[in-house]
């Protein structure tokens, strides 16, 4: 089952050539990467976008990426806003969040402070969006550094459970679960936009969340 | 031709001109030379573009503004597209904006519009080997490096750069493979740069030519400029600058001097104004006082004190003294006003505040409170005097016509009512003013430190004194013993009105949240007044009951189970009921926070009880008087026919004979005892009064006593004459008796007795109905006793006479069978015992025959003796 959703992410390569003539604009999903500085938001984004792992660290201000992916046989466009994790930019976050439709809240499993910070990000997003059911994914990054792990898996799951959001552990370095994280979120957004009943969505999310942790 | 370039990522997505952006995408050129065009937001940025890989270009944004695409053009793929956009903006430079320009070592050629906001601390030159130093924690000790390379440096940009140092410093932990890869990377980079420069020139021939043209143009312009301004343009420029400096200086100093002048003028003006204010103040104070704008005066006074309070100028001091005098006068005036009553609280408060703000030495608020209290006292007295006077006046006026009419009304006169209303109103109004004033005073709202406890106690005493005065007046006014009777309705209305006045005053005091002591004083007055009202009603009823004697008409109202009664019992019930109803309506219902009037065992309850008893006993004595009072009139002891002639219904009521009145009174007493008293008890119960058990009991006993007195009297006057006739009758018959004659009938005295009994029975029965039995029975008893006495005193008769006597006794026994008591029978038996018994059966038979015959003959008489009025 987890393989299945990863397969779909290989599709978009084919679709890229078609971008020259955008005939009928595919649905656009605006995803925003949030999380403390240095947890790997940009690394995840670049890995997802270009299969590339950037070793050197340069603090992001605000980067914008967009590409097409095929999700469950349908071509959609994903717009990723990679935001600044540093507190210096906290003031302008509100503006960014307002335009977001789905959020990947990233922390580093080697850094408990970043895990703590997710709480604040969650609150800020809920405050700005004023919607409990906004598509949202809790992402624990740097899963390749298992020996340096300092945030227990249980705590992560518990928080995701509490927020009723899925939890995924990724590694931007090994590309582990990267596509899954993005696609899970996009699927949520897509369903929400298609007007599926909220409670069905919730169930789905729970089920999915659990299985992701397993894989 | 390959696929066209697509830009899918931009980092950052916005920035001011010169921002270093990383452009990512696909097919961005196969090599640096393949990249032939880069436009960000329409600005050509190719010059700053640095091709990194087919997926990544780093460039600097141009002087663009707003949002726009990033278009990459390659030789292999042509013009590309962009899925993301860059937004350029121009930073506005403010004083707090960090704007220093730092020259960056590894910076690309600085661009004419370029500004570099990056601070040097954030800049670290990229690793030349393209290897990450991340996670490289264990650093090579610096001292060793210095030892190893004494003249060297590890910095890439230094002249004495030592690659060994750099490698040891940054890559001491890097694996050999990585280092090799880094080497390859470095070589490629060097290659690409070399190649890049060459290709750059080739690719931009047009631009280079263009630049040459520009340079030529620049040269021409410069030469022309030189021709125009000569070789040395500087002196003239300097002269111009110097001139402008002087001009600016002169302009500036002029402005400065003007400002100085303006300041001085302003100062002088303000001084003038202040002095004018001072000199005009006395006049303006006068004016404001006239206009009653005391606040203005206070403000002015405070201001002048602030401005000139410490002045040494004689003139000023003089004026100040004048002002002080005026203010003193004003204080005096305000003080008088504050004390002068009547005045409403707002105004008084205003005066108090003014006095306080004028530093009046004294406790203004306290004075106000005291004066208010004094005023209240005098007002009360005034009200009292006024109404007293009025009352006197009225009584004098009326005195000419009817003596002492007004005074006789006592506490119920209209004047008294008005007095109560006025006094209650005055008390309520003044306390309404006084109490809040006092409360604010003690809350410290009226400034002036209240000398708490002592003053509190004084205030309390004051209020209590006022309330006590009020209650004293009200007692004098309302509780004065009432004189003549006024109509009950008027009385009730006045009582209610007066009560209402008192209650209104009480209510308004309650609202004030006064201490409980003064409240209870007022409540006591109300309570006493209620008790007073109750007593008045009861006294009134008492009086009326006493007067019942005059109302007795002896007209029979109805025949009841207890005999024929006149309207006396009904009147009693009505009077008592009326009194109860009035009491219930007027005084029993308690107002707010008043104690209930008739508490079981309480004083008023006892009064009520006492009065009730008095009323009822008065009634009993009235009955008694009526029954036993006779103008030496003797009983009508004539025979039956006379008694029957005086038909009760038809007879003139006034002319009721005494015996009838006696019987009627008895019936009345009986009825009252059995019927009226329970209904009075029921009425008391209905009105929720305490049970009047004792009074009722006492009355019952009194009535019982009265009834037996009446019965005895009746018996005495009626039975004695009857009995007296028996002996003479027997004797009278004896002379005619023939000793040998056959005895076939009783002697006439038997018939007389029977007839007399019938007459009594008829009379009593007509009045007393069922109760008549008692009277007849008593008389029968007396008759029997007399017979027994006679039989005992007479010598034993001869047989013939014995038979006769036996016959007579038997006949009497038969006739009076219904009315004979045990005692009466005993008497008869006694009489019979003295007679020798019948000797033969024949005699017995004879007697039976005679008795039967007697019964037959006397059937009508016997029937009338043994029946009651109703059954006839």
UniProtKB/TrEMBL annotation, chain A:
Keywords: Cell membrane, GTP-binding, Hydrolase, Lipoprotein, Membrane, Methylation, Nucleotide-binding, Prenylation
Coiled coil (residue ranges): none
E.C. number(s) listed in UniProt: 3.6.5.2
GO MF annotation list: G protein activity; GTP binding
Main location: membrane
Xref: SMART domains: RAB, RAN, RAS, RHO
Membrane-topology annotation of the record: Lipid-anchor
Example of a GO biological process term: signal transduction
Enzyme class: hydrolase
Keyword Cell membrane attributed: yes
PROSITE patterns in UniProt: RAB, RAS, RHO
Entry superkingdom: Eukaryota
Gene Ontology annotations for the cellular component aspect, listed alphabetically: plasma membrane
SUPFAM superfamilies reported in the protein's UniProt record: P-loop containing nucleoside triphosphate hydrolases
Family indicated by similarity: Belongs to the small GTPase superfamily. Ras family.
Name of the featured protein: small monomeric GTPase
Species: Chrysodeixis includens
UniProtKB/TrEMBL annotation, chain B:
Domain (IPT/TIG) ranges: 5-86
Name listed for the protein in its UniProt record: Exocyst complex component 2
GO BP terms: cell development; exocytosis; Golgi to plasma membrane transport; protein transport; system development
Keyword Protein transport: yes
Keywords of this entry: Exocytosis, Protein transport, Transport
Entry similarity comment: Belongs to the SEC5 family.
Assembly behavior: Component of the exocyst complex.
Record carries keyword Transport: yes
GO cellular component term, pick one: exocyst
Residues covered by the Exocyst complex component EXOC2/Sec5 N-terminal domain: 126-865
Gene3D superfamilies with a match to the protein in the record: Immunoglobulins (2.60.40.10)
PANTHER family: EXOCYST COMPLEX COMPONENT 2, EXOCYST COMPLEX COMPONENT SEC5
Function recorded in the entry: Component of the exocyst complex involved in the docking of exocytic vesicles with fusion sites on the plasma membrane.
């Amino acid at each position: 089952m987890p393989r299945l959703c990863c397969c779909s992410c290989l599709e978009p390569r084919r679709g890229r050539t078609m971008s020259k003539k955008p005939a009928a604009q595919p649905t656009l999903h605006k995803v925003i990467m949030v999380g403390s500085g240095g947890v790997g938001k940009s690394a995840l984004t670049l890995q997802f976008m270009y299969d590339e792992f950037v070793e050197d660290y340069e603090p992001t201000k605000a980067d914008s990426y967009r590409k097409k992916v095929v999700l469950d046989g349908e071509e959609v466009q994903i717009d990723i806003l990679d935001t600044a994790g540093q507190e210096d930019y906290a003031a302008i976050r509100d503006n960014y969040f307002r335009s977001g439709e789905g959020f990947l809240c990233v922390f580093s499993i080697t850094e408990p402070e970043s895990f703590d910070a997710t709480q604040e990000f969650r609150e800020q997003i809920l405050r700005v969006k004023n919607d409990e059911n906004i598509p949202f994914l809790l992402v624990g990054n740097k899963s390749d550094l298992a020996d340096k792990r300092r945030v227990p898996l249980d705590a992560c799951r518990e928080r995701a459970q509490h927020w009723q959001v899925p939890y995924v552990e990724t590694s931007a370095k090994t590309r582990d679960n990267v596509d899954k994280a993005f696609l899970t979120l996009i699927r949520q957004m897509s369903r929400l936009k298609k007007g599926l009943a909220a409670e069905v969505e919730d169930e789905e999310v729970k089920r999915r969340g659990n299985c992701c942790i397993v894989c | 031709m390959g696929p066209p370039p697509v830009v899918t990522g931009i980092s950052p997505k916005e920035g001011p001109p010169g921002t270093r952006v990383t452009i990512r995408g696909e097919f961005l050129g196969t090599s640096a030379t393949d990249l032939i065009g880069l436009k960000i937001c329409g600005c050509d940025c190719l010059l700053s573009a640095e091709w990194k890989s087919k997926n990544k270009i780093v460039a600097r944004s141009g002087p663009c503004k707003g949002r726009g695409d990033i278009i990459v053009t390659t030789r292999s793929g042509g013009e590309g597209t962009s899925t993301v956009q860059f937004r350029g903006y121009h930073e506005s430079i403010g004083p707090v904006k960090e704007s220093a320009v730092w020259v960056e070592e590894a910076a690309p050629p600085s661009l004419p519009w370029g500004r570099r906001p990056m601070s040097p601390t954030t800049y670290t030159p990229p690793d030349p080997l393209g290897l990450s130093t991340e996670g490289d924690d264990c650093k090579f000790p610096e001292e060793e490096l210095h030892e190893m390379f004494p003249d060297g440096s590890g910095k890439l940009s230094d002249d004495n750069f030592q690659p060994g140092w750099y490698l040891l410093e940054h890559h001491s932990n890097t694996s050999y493979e990585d280092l090799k890869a880094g080497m390859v990377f470095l070589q490629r980079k060097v290659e690409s740069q070399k190649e890049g420069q060459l290709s750059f020139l080739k690719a931009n021939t047009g631009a280079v030519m263009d630049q040459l043209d520009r340079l030529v143009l620049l040269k021409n312009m410069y030469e022309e400029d030189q021709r125009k301004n000569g070789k040395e343009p500087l002196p003239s420029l300097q002269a111009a600058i110097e001139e402008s400096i002087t001009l600016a200086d002169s302009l500036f100093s002029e402005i400065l001097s003007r400002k100085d002048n303006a300041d001085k003028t302003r100062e002088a003006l303000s001084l003038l104004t202040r002095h004018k204010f001072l000199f005009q103040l006395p006049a303006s104070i006068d004016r404001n006082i006239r206009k009653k704008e005391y606040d203005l005066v206070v403000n002015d006074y405070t201001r002048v004190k602030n401005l000139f309070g410490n002045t040494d100028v004689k003139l000023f001091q003089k004026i100040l003294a004048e002002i002080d005098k005026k203010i003193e006068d004003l204080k005096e005036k305000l003080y008088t006003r504050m004390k002068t009553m009547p005045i409403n609280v707002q105004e008084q408060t205003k005066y108090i505040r003014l006095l306080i703000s004028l530093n009046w030495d004294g406790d203004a608020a306290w004075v106000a409170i005291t004066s208010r209290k004094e005023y209240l006292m005098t007002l009360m007295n005034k009200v009292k005097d006024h109404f007293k006077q009025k009352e006197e006046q009225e009584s004098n006026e009326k005195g000419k016509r009817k003596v002492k009419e007004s005074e006789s009304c006592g506490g119920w006169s209209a004047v008294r009512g008005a007095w109560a209303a006025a006094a209650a109103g005055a008390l309520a109004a003044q306390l309404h003013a006084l109490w809040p004033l006092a409360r604010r005073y003690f809350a410290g709202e009226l400034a002036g430190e209240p000398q708490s406890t002592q003053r509190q106690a004084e205030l309390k005493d004051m209020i209590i004194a006022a309330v006590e005065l009020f209650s004293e007046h009200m007692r004098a006014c309302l509780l004065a013993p009432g004189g003549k009777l006024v109509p009950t309705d008027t009385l009730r209305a006045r009582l209610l009105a007066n009560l209402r006045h008192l209650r209104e005053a009480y209510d308004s005091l309650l609202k004030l949240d006064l201490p409980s002591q003064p409240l209870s004083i007022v409540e006591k007055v109300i309570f006493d007044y209620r008790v007073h009202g109750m007593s008045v009603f009861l006294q009134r009823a008492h009086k009326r009951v006493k007067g019942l004697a005059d109302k007795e008409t002896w007209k029979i109202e109805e025949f009841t189970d207890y005999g024929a009664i006149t309207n006396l019992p009904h009147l009693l019930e009505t009077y008592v009921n009326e009194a109860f109803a009035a009491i219930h309506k007027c005084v029993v219902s308690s107002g707010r926070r008043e104690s209930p009037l008739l508490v079981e065992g309480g004083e008023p309850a006892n009064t009520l009880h006492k009065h009730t008893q008095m009323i009822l006993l008065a009634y009993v004595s009235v009955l008694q008087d009526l029954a036993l009072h006779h103008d030496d009139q003797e009983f009508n002891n004539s025979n039956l026919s006379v008694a029957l002639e005086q038909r009760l219904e038809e007879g003139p009521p006034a002319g009721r004979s005494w015996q009838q009145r006696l019987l009627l009174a008895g019936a009345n007493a009986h009825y009252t005892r059995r019927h009226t008293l329970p209904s009075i008890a029921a009425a008391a119960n209905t009105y929720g009064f305490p049970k009047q058990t004792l009074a009722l009991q006492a009355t019952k006993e009194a009535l019982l006593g009265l009834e037996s007195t009446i019965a005895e009297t009746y018996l005495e006057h009626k039975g004695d004459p009857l009995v007296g006739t028996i002996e003479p009758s027997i004797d009278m018959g004896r002379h005619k008796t023939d000793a040998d004659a056959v005895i076939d009938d009783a002697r006439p005295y038997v018939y007389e007795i029977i007839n007399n009994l019938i007459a009594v029975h008829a009379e009593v029965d007509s009045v007393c109905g069922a109760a008549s039995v008692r009277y007849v029975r008593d008389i029968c008893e007396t008759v029997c006793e007399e017979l027994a006495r006679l039989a005992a005193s007479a010598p034993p008769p001869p047989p013939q006479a014995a038979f006769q006597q036996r016959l007579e006794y038997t006949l009497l026994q038969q006739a009076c069978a219904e009315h004979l008591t045990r005692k009466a029978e005993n008497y008869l038996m006694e009489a019979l015992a003295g007679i020798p018994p019948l000797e033969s059966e024949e005699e017995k038979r004879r007697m039976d025959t005679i008795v039967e015959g007697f019964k037959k003959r006397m059937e009508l008489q016997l029937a009338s003796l043994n029946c009651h009025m109703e059954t006839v």
